[in-house]
Specification:
By secondary structure, the chain is an alpha+beta fold. It has 3 domains: about 35-135, Jelly Rolls (Sandwich); about 145-245, Immunoglobulin-like, CATH 2.60.40; about 250-375, no CATH class. Helices cover about 20% and strands about 40% of the residues. The protein contains 6 helices and 21 strands. It has helices at about 1-30, 55-60, 115, 290-295, 305-310, 350-365, and strands at about 35-40, 45-50, 75-80, 85, 95-100, 105-110, 120-125, 130-135, 145, 155, 160-165, 175-180, 185-195, 200-210, 220-225, 235-245, 250-255, 275-285, 320-330, 330-340, 370-375. It has an 8-stranded mixed beta sheet, with no helix packed on it. It has a 6-stranded mixed beta sheet with strand order 1-2-3-8-5-6. The longest helix is centred in the first third of the chain and has 31 residues, at about 1-30.
Length: about 375
């Protein structure tokens, strides 16, 4: 009986010592963390981050930490740009990892704790980076979007990737909707879980959204959790801002080069010989002719230094001159202008050059056979 009692006593002592050592080393690791902090604005959220900017700190990172106090995560600052590899060996925190080139996010990954994966996994930066942020996931966090990133330029089809808690899904699905800046819906898609969705933990999702690119530059990508009850109080919404990659086309803007418009005696001829094209790109819209003329009217403001050095010039822009409308009927293009300061009048040579610039710019479009100005007195000597 005495031996049994001694065995229990010794066993209890070993257990207590083990527990004590566990918490000692746990606390010791937390206390050994670099206590230098910085505040870092990440996707409009101000984070308080521990700093790792030396070899020993890079190697240690957040390993061995079960709870991070007084910080949102850690930023790794490297002296050079390389492809970086991070793993979850001895990592007991769930992390979202942001890969940064200087301060620009170039990719995002999910790095679960070793308890979740049960084996060491490694993630790799999508390109060379010199900063990495390990953000510690909080209980209140519900969704992270990895692709597209906020304010990223997007095209159709749009690939969407991220992680969300299992309660965002129903039958492994939830919705994403895309809106223009005037709140018109451009498209929607079903996002599907890649892993088992019946869990309170984070689940990877992906999907693809097709849409027609609008004329405006910005929009909203909206995520809506599956809400089979239909009750508003159960509806969760998460949004990020996006920018639309505008499709473009090449056009010619006709400017004037007096060096190309001289007779054999060196006199200016005021002829088409000096009206020469300069190539530019415009967004594809429903009003390409009007957009091209408006770009021409910006004149010297859009000429490059090299073009000016070559002798290309123009009197545009003219103070107050504005193209009010452009209408095309039976091959006749009518351009209506507002010229409140009479800047389009003057000598015959000057007026002719201004006229020719607009006319030749308009006639590059095959459907334009003739150009008329309104009111009739505009661009008259």
């Amino acid at each position: 009986m005495k031996n049994k009692f001694n065995f229990i006593l010794i066993s209890s002592a070993i257990v207590l010592i083990s527990i004590g050592l566990f918490f000692y080393f746990k606390q010791s690791k937390e206390e050994n963390l670099n206590q230098e902090f910085i505040n870092f604005n990440l996707q409009r959220e101000n984070l308080r981050l521990l700093v790792a900017d030396e070899q020993e700190e890079w190697a240690r990172g957040l390993s061995g930490i079960y709870e991070l106090k007084d910080a949102d995560g850690m930023i790794f600052i490297f002296p050079d740009k390389q492809i970086r590899h991070f793993w979850n060996k001895d990592t007991h925190l769930d992390l979202v990892v942001y890969w940064l080139l200087d301060d620009e996010i170039v990719g995002v990954d999910y790095l679960p704790s070793i308890e979740k994966t049960e084996e060491v996994i490694t993630i790799t930066s999508p390109k060379e980076v010199n900063k990495v942020i390990e953000y510690v996931i909080k209980k209140e966090d519900e969704i992270f979007v990895f692709q597209p990133l906020p304010n990223q330029k997007i095209t159709s089809p749009l690939k969407i990737k991220g992680i969300a808690r299992g309660n965002w899904f129903f039958e492994a699905e939830f919705l994403a909707e895309l809106y223009g800046n005037n709140q018109n819906k451009l498209g929607l898609t079903i996002l599907r879980a890649i892993d088992d969705w019946m869990t309170p933990d984070f689940v990877k999702f992906e999907g693809e959204l097709n849409f027609t690119t609008p004329n405006n530059e910005t929009g909203i990508l909206r995520f809506l959790n599956s809400n089979p009850s239909g009750l508003p109080e159960h509806q969760k919404i998460y949004e990020i801002s996006v920018k639309f990659e505008q499709k473009t086309r090449k056009v010619s803007l006709y400017f004037y080069n007096p060096l190309k418009d001289k007779d054999e005696n060196g006199n200016i001829k005021c002829s088409e010989d000096g009206i020469l094209p300069v190539e530019r790109e415009i967004s594809i819209t429903k009003t390409p002719i009007q957009d091209t003329i408006n770009l021409l009217l910006k004149g010297k403001d859009i000429l490059t230094k090299e073009e000016i050095e070559q002798g290309i010039t123009t009197e545009f822009p003219l103070e107050g001159l504005e193209l009010k409308s452009a209408s095309l009927k039976d091959g006749i293009l009518t351009l209506q202008f507002d010229d409140p300061y009479n800047k389009t009048s003057g000598g015959s040579c000057r007026v002719k050059i201004l006229w020719l610039q607009i006319e030749k710019t308009a006639k590059q479009f095959d459907e334009v056979k003739e150009v008329k100005f309104s009111p009739e007195e505009i661009f008259q000597p």
